[in-house]
Amino acid sequence: MTFQFTPIALAAALAAAFPVSSAFAAANPVPEAAAVVVTAARQAQAPADVLADINVISAEDIANSGAVSVADLLQQQHGIEIARNGGAGSNTSVFIRGSNSVQNVVLVDGVRVGSSTTGGASWATLPLDQIDHIEIVYGPLSSMYGADAVGGVIQIFTKKQKGAVRSVVSAGIGSYGTRELNGGVSGSVNKELSFSIKAGHQEAEGFSVTRPGAGPYSYNADKDGYKLDSFSASANYEFGKQAEVGAQFMTSRLNAQFDSGPSYDDRNVQNQEMISVFGKMRVNDIWNTHLQLSQSRDQTYTDASYGKSQIDTRQDFITLQNQFQLGKDSAQLIAERREENVLTTTKAINGKRRTDSLAGSYLWKQDAHLASAAVRYDRSSVYGNNTTGNLAYGYRFAEGLRLNASYGTSFRAPTFNELYYPGYGIATNRPEKSKNAEIGAVYQRGDLELSAVYFRNRATDLLVTAKVCPVDPVTNKYGCAYNVNQATISGLTLSGATKFGQLGIKASADFQDPKDDTTGLQLARRAKRHGTLSADWTEGNWKAGVETVFSGRRYDDVANKNALGGYSLLNLYTSVQLNKDTRVLARWNNALNKDYETAKNYNVTGSSLFIGVQYGY
């Protein structure tokens, strides 16, 4: 396996130029600002008490990054790879720990988002400027979130503000005709009522997403740009310390060009919405209850050389969550209903399905011991019943040092396409299932944070596309998606961070073997080696940093015929705090103009510069 190490070497040289006194280990810890995390156990926990491998991207990380999209931000995190058919507005897949992009759950403020037809989240429609912070939990979490939480869960928290009412504005310009303008107002009207309203616009002229190798019937040399408009609002009212009610709403509209023919102006117009209302009550000294009604919607209109289509998927949720504080321990009981509705121009896949779920969990703390247990039962109106569970144990051997071990089961539900799409879906397809075991060590003392995790995730009944399509015994029709493959993804993740005065260093390295056990081949678009290295220097109101990302050889197809070469990227950024409210930042992505592919015959962003100003952030 061959790597392009030039940016890595340059980054190391830049880091070495700063006056450090000792070597560092590797990286991506929970920042100090993250006093609690909530995704791993669906309740607030101190990061030191979380037994899963977690990562928090803080508001400061996002503000300093100058990143254009959520995918750009995620690419810098350990255990995550991305594949994208072009620039920031293009179709994007996110792989966690080598799992498929549809084997992950994505939440926005506790509400699941994504398409019921394709199974994945629409990453390009998530507006980065509306996001406060992101929590990533690695490993199976079906015992907490049900179907699809095989590789992990990514939860996005939108911006909210308490205290004095304040305004925020940001604007920026960049390469490829990139332009941004965002603004909002948030704060507290009084002690009880707080609110937030934000809106944003982003656009780029872009570049041709396809390469000539895509062939004469797909390649188009024209520029493929995009426009993304977003709006979010929230309001909370607190009744002292006993109760709280609130509502939140987020919507975005992406109009993105792509290529499917030599001369046609192909476009995808995607709308994503999320709305929820909730109430929280402290029933007594040990019992808190939380009721949430929510809905997410994913709509796509496609106008391409091969025709026009409309896909509208909607998910409705009712969640009742009860938490019981038992001394240092806590227990939870959760009841959920999820209803998926699909309406498309392909009438065969239209329909609905309902999933009713019951879950319980227990967190135990005793001296140096930590443990957790969770179990969940999901009953689907279409694909049957599934029971999943998770057990984890941790022991603090010394100050700052803890060893963890866990075992969990999970499953992925077949999508509407995999069940009903004409000539592809098979109505009798079963859920994919997996069993994951892992052990890890975490060390945190002062500014030094280290983590090492070894995992082994074995999946069965994987849904694959058959070369020879079998006959569905129910419909007596041919279908190409069927349960046959098995896969084992094992790997070691090393991460950590440290500070030496004004110098901060983070790094991570993922060594994994994403293997299709049925064929013995490497799973598509997933590398065996992936890593990051970054360093930043703060001097008064000025901050500068360097980031590198490197990835090993991958394959674009399950047959491992179309290789995607390894690559390494160098990003540079700097920011200056002009006063307490105003900051100017600049970011230079892919500074060495590396030519690489994350999807065969699709271009990626070359060397690009972005300059912006932020007020009130």
Automatic annotation (TrEMBL):
Q: What is this protein called?
A: TonB-dependent receptor
> What is this entry's stated membrane topology?
Multi-pass membrane protein
Give compartment(s). Cell outer membrane
> CDD domains per the record?
ligand_gated_channel
Q: What InterPro entries does this protein map onto? A: Beta-barrel_TonB (IPR000531), Beta-barrel_TonB_sf (IPR036942), Plug_dom (IPR012910), Plug_dom_sf (IPR037066), TonB-dep_rcpt-like (IPR039426)
Q: Where is the signal peptide?
A: 1-25
Which Gene3D superfamilies does the record match to this protein? TonB-dependent receptor, beta-barrel domain (2.40.170.20), TonB-dependent receptor, plug domain (2.170.130.10)
- Matches recorded under SUPFAM superfamilies: Porins
Query: One GO CC term of this entry?
Result: cell outer membrane
Q: What is its main location?
A: membrane
